[in-house]
Amino acid sequence: AQSVTQLDSHVSVSEGTPVLLRCNYSSSYSPSLFWYVQHPNKGLQLLLKYTSAATLVKGINGFEAEFKKSETSFHLTKPSAHMSDAAEYFCVVSDLVNFGNEKLTFGTGTRLTIIP
Amino acid sequence: DTGVSQDPRHKITKRGQNVTFRCDPISEHNRLYWYRQTLGQGPEFLTYFQNEAQLEKSRLLSDRFSAERPKGSFSTLEIQRTEQGDSAMYLCASSSPSDSGNTIYFGEGSWLTVV
Questions:
Q1: If you ran DSSP here, which 8-state letter would residue A43 be given?
Q2: B7, B31, B50, B54 from B47: Cα distances, Å
């Protein structure tokens, strides 16, 4: 069975400082991994995805994540936080299951707060 | 806007009433998904359609829940005899293998409050 663990339920950083959101995964096969962001009262927006190509994945809004198989980790980083980054972030693992269903399993989320 | 569209965005209903949510996927996306998200949790998979065929249902989808996608385009999710535990955000998503490698795009969700 696939699963993800987001190690921090809440992260606070000052504007202009680096962001690190941690995620560990468990999957029986070679997984696809994603980070989604959810702003208040909004749907989910895809930040980036890893699908067994380059281990360092660049996403939108300056975010990137590195796939480390040996550590079963897929941590999300950004060099300099912006106020607009305040949101809930979800680490997601996907396995192809029946009939081509790319079934997503979400972590419990990390709430990112940016301090002015 | 050519994204996934959901209606209504918010619904308050009395316990025991039936509710129906509609989802319009991105045009030409043949795969459609429903997820449920409760406060403080990540979304959980409910069901999956490929074209008009419902190919997978989660154990979370009790007998009071039914989803359809009659013409392989829009989908409806109906909850009968609502209970307070059904209060959640219901998210619809769509994808296509030919669109960014089957990237799954989500709508903004339909909030359900059962009082």
A1: -
A2: 18, 11, 10, 7
**A 55-114: CB under 8 A from B:** 90, 92, 97-109
List, for residues A34-70, the tens digit of each pLDDT value. 999 999 878 899 999 988 778 899 999 999 999 998 9
| Residue type (1 letter), A70 | S
User: Which among B33, B40, B109 has the least Cβ separation from residue A43?
Assistant: B109
Widest pairwise Cα distance in chain A = 48
Q: Which residues face A110 on adjacent strands?
A: A89
Helix (H, G, I), strand (E, B) or coil at B80: coil
- Residue B25 DSSP code: P
Nearest to A49 by CA among A101, A4, A91, A97: A91
Q: Which of B41, B44, B95 sits opposite A102 (nearest CB)?
A: B95
Task: Give the 3-state secondary structure of residue B81.
Answer: coil
Summarize pLDDT for B23-60 with one digit per residue, the tens.
999 998 999 999 999 988 899 999 999 999 998 899 88
Residue A74 neighbours by CB distance under 10 Å: 27
